[in-house]
Amino acid sequence: MLSFRVEKPSNKIHSILKKESFIDNKENIDMNINLTTRERHKYKLDKNSNLTEKDVILVNKTHKKTKKEKYNFFDISKIPDNIQIPKEYMNTIYYNLLKEEDEGITPKPKYNYMKEQKEVNLQMRSILIDWIIDVHFKFGFMDETLFMTVFIIDRYLSVNQISRKKFQLLGITALLIACKHEEIDLPKINDFTYITDNAYVKEEVITMENDVLKVLNFSLLYPSPIKFYEYLSVYFGFNKKMHLMGKYLMETFLIDLKYIKYKPSIISSACVYIVMKFFKMKNYQESYDNKYYSLITDENAKYSEHDVKDCAKDICLFVDNINKTKFLSCQKKYAKPELEKVSILIMNN
Q1: Which domains does the chain carry?
Q2: Longest CA pairwise span in the chain (Å)
Q3: Which residues, listed in sequence order, are joined to residue 32 by a DSSP beta bridge?
Q4: Alpha carbon distances (Å) from 31 to 19, 38, 53
Q5: Dihedral sign, CA of 134, 125, 308, 175?
Q6: Do the Cβ atoms of 170 and 153 come closer than 8 Å?
Q7: CB neighbours (10 Å) of residue 140?
Q8: Could you give the angle at which helices 167-182 and 202-215 cross, rounded to 10 degrees?
């Protein structure tokens, strides 16, 4: 039987517990408070000003209310109740996504990392990502798994050299790591080696997995464009076809290395902007409001609508010319009836 020793509280703690709350004490409510320099700055007071405890309570309440209202991204009263996303938490979740994006991740993917690679090039990266999109679809993996896989590949290649022989090994290893994070029914390592026509063995995958995780400091979680897009598409009232078109644009853009140039929230806003323009929605201008991709909401915002429009141009340019390339896995995927044939819809427009 376990026994626990109960010690008598210290005189200091005991005396604090005996004190009445200053809120209930009318004599204390108007007592002046000695403020530090930081606190005076917080309450916007000069060095000769005094503040009562009652004033502190009121200022703190006002401060918290202002902060909460500042990050009111979505008017949840306009969102229907039959959606799967808990709309009462949408603003909080979206704020946290932007905060995580703003804090960044180390090591970061570099847009020009291919210049430092000796044995692989842009063409090989495009072939690998296109192949991964095909594998991802055939396995029926989650959307987030695909974006995490590509993100792992680009981060690893940004700081580490790789041989041509092990390039595909990196691809299946990144997919394996992403699956461990996102999938419920996790495939076996042998399944991943099988899809490479047994070009690698289990031990090589395990060794590469250890290497990738060490290079990335075991830091993998970072908000992807699909995370932001889920909330924006719900808020702007996208139907199934519109939602799938945005996903098609986003996934196809993964093949282009320009994808690294833009923040995930910028990419998602750009895809929303393209879809709204494509379907001639009158409120399309709302899609590039900087509150959806920047925590800075004043006139000196870090990002502007031009970032969204530049990204949208790059996406459209790449998607419009995808037929001239061999990277057609995403186009074939979204040409299927269950995915509303959105790739065909774009081609025929």
Answers
A1: 104-215 (1.10.472.10), 224-347 (1.10.472.10)
A2: 82
A3: 52
A4: 16, 20, 7
A5: positive
A6: yes
A7: 8
A8: 70
Q: What is the separation of C-alpha 75 from the centre of its chain, rounded to a whole number of angstroms? A: 21
Q: What does DSSP assign to residue 260? A: G
Digit-by-digit pLDDT tens for the chain (349 residues) are 443 343 444 443 333 333 333 334 443 333 344 445 444 454 445 555 555 555 555 545 444 443 444 568 898 888 887 777 788 899 999 999 999 999 999 999 999 999 999 999 999 999 999 999 999 999 999 999 999 999 999 999 999 999 999 999 999 999 999 999 999 998 999 999 999 999 999 999 999 999 999 999 999 999 999 999 999 999 999 999 999 999 999 999 999 999 999 999 999 999 999 999 999 999 999 999 988 998 875 555 667 888 999 999 999 999 999 999 999 999 999 999 999 999 999 998 8
Three-class secondary structure assignment of 121-162: CHHHHHHHHHHHHHHHHHHCCCHHHHHHHHHHHHHHHHHCCC
Rounded Cα distance between 258 and 48, Å, is 55
Per the CB < 8 A criterion, the answer to whether 225 and 273 are in contact is no
Cα 71-73-79 angle, rounded to 5 deg: 140
Question: Shortest CA distance to 168 belongs to which of 202, 134, 131?
Answer: 131
Contact of 216 with 191, CB cutoff 8 Å? no
Single-letter code of the amino acid located at 162:
I
Which residues lie closer than 8 Å to 79 by C-beta, 6 or more apart? 87, 90, 234, 235
